[in-house]
Amino acid sequence: MFAIVRTGGKQYRVAAGDKIAVEKLAGEAGDTITLDDVLLVGEGGAVKDAKGVAVSAEIIAQDRGEKVIVFKKRRRHNYRRKQGHRQYQTVLKITGVGAAKKAAPKKAAPAKADAPAETKAAPAKKAAPAKKPAAKTAASTAAKKPAAKAAAKPAAKKAPAKKAPAKKPAAKAAPKKTDDA
C-alpha cells in the first residue's frame, strides 16, 4: 500500500519502510509523528479513498541538506556576490499507512471546547477583584504622600521638529549671445 502525502509544501509518494527527507518538522530523533494530509491512497493499480487515512512515521534525524550556492553577477560592473545556504530537514522512516483513529479526536474536541470557555470566565472573575485593591492602594498612597507628587519634576518638553531648509531659486538663464558682427 502506498500514499501521497503533503508536508512542507511538497508532495511525497510513501510506503511502509521508506525513508524520506522533508522540510524541518518539530520533534527529536526517535519521536513518532503522524502525517494527516494524505492526498491519495493506492494498492497495486487500485486507488482508494484517502479520507480518514493517516501515515505514521518515525523521526530518524534532524539535519541539513546539501549546500546551495547563490551567485549574483552583473556584467561589466565588477559586481559579484557569492553566498551559500543549507536548508534544515527532517529524515523520516515511514512505519505504516493506514486508517487514523477516529474515536480519540472526537472525545478530545468537546473537552477542548469546554476548557477554553471555563478558562476565559475564570480569569475575568479573578482579574476584577485584583484590579480593585490595586486602585485603592494607588489612591491611598497618593493621599499619604501629596508632597511627593508636587516635588516630582515636570516632564521635559521635546524640541520642536526642525524644518527643512528653503530651496534656493533656480539660477536665471544667461541671455543668449548673438553673432551680429
Task: Provide a descriptive summary of the structure in words.
- The protein is an alpha+beta fold.
- The protein has two domains: 2-100, no CATH class; 107-138.
- It contains two helices and eight strands.
- It has a four-stranded antiparallel sheet with strand order 2-1-5-6, with no helix packed on it. The protein has a four-stranded antiparallel sheet with strand order 3-8-7-4, with no helix packed on it.
- The longest helix is centred in the last third of the chain and has 42 residues, at 103-144.
Short descriptors:
2 domains; alpha+beta; 40% strand; four-stranded antiparallel sheet; 181 residues
Structure annotation, total helices: 2
Number of domains: 2
Overall pLDDT, averaged?
Answer: 78
Strands of the biggest beta sheet: in what spatial order?
2-1-5-6
Radius of gyration, CA atoms, in whole angstroms: 35 Å
N- to C-terminal distance: 102 Å
| Shape assignment | elongated
Helix content class: 25-40%
| Secondary-structure element pattern, one letter each | EEEEEEEEHH
The tally of strands reads: 8
What percent strand? Answer: 35-45%
Low-confidence runs: 102-116
Biggest sheet overview: 4 strands, antiparallel
Structural class, by secondary structure, is alpha+beta
Question: How would you summarize this macromolecular structure in one to three sentences?
Answer:
With 181 residues, the protein is α+β, with helices and mostly antiparallel strands. The chain has two helices and eight strands; from the N terminus they run E-E-E-E-E-E-E-E-H-H.
